[in-house]
Amino acid sequence: MKTCTFNIKRFDPEKASTPRWAKFSVEMEQTERLLDGLIKIKDNMDGTLTFRRSCAHGICGSCAVKINGKNGLACQTLIKDMPDTITLEPLEAYPVIKDLVVDMSPFFEKNDKVMPYLVNDETPPDRERLQSPEDQHKILQSITCIMCGSCTSSCPGYWANKDYLGPSALLKAYRFIFDTRDNASGERLEKIIHNNGLWRCRSIYNCVEVCPKEIDITGHLSKLKRLAVKKKLLERK
Amino acid sequence: MKYKWHTGSIAWIIHRVSGILLLLYIFLHLYVLSNLKDPQKFESIMKAMDNPFVKIGEAGLLFLVIAHSLNGIRLTLLDIGTPTKYQKLLFRAAAIIGGIIFLIGAWPIMGGGY
Questions:
Q1: In this predicted complex, what is the ipTM?
Q2: Which terminal residue of chain A, N or C, has fewer Cβ atoms less than 10 Å from its own Cβ?
Q3: B85 CA: distance to closest CA in chain A (Å)
Q4: Please, what's the b/e burial string for A166-177 (b: 16 or more CB within 10 A of its CB; e: otherwise)?
Q5: Quick check: B8 and A203 CB within 8 A?
Q6: Which of A210, A77, A214 is nearest to A153 (CA)?
Q7: Which domains, from first to last, does chain A contain?
């Protein structure tokens, strides 16, 4: 057992116009996770503390918060890896609704812009559309994205320009552009090659540092950049 | 709490700041060269270059050029397909190589000899 101090940035738009800091001392087991601490606070100390959580197993991406200045999933962060004082803040760059809950709609709007669905007008076969293991391997990492929003919220490019699509939406574009079953790769690529799209990625690697699924996001974006350059060069010929 | 600084963000800030300063330097450089038509004025400007503060400025310029070009090489390597896992190693390598080039280059600028 160890006593952890949770330093939480709280904000209630109905009561105050500015955020405030609240401190909670919680007895934690080394094997517990940050989310367990938040649940303990809400259950036993202050029922008004607001945060999002759903699956608690690193699949839904609801509990993404800024932990000691770095984005991550509260359900995936173990107490044993944390210092005694834990600072929790809502995700950066999204509008805060209350305490640790942010409005994710700007994030999902960006996602919708890259046609995040399979486009294939051919008549489907009797069962599923088949894909070779090699082709599947190309998108294997990108399909593990749980859309928690940690990456886009950690991106200085996005902090500076909220019109930037952000790493998450661009990764989603990659997922379909490099999917061999998809027929709209060209159209989708056009949707991301602009000043607020692919070229706003400055290879800062913050997204790679925070991704709870350890996806090499910037590496995937580099691949998209190479594809975009190749396409434009061929068009010119 | 400020967002945590990672290697990539440090490299990016260095790249940005050095890029802007180098752009400003180009104008200064063009101003000095624009005096080439007048030999006497040019001589007097060249004399001003012996000022120790200008020397420090020149060493600073060397630092900016090295930092910007080596990080540029790092970014190019990463963009043409070097795996992301090497990005921090490349930054450290650039810092070490850059540091050595800077020391070798700044020594004669500051009046030393080999």
A1: 0.88
A2: C
A3: 9
A4: bbbbbbbbbbbb
A5: yes
A6: A210
A7: 2-102 (3.10.20.30), 105-236 (1.10.1060.10)
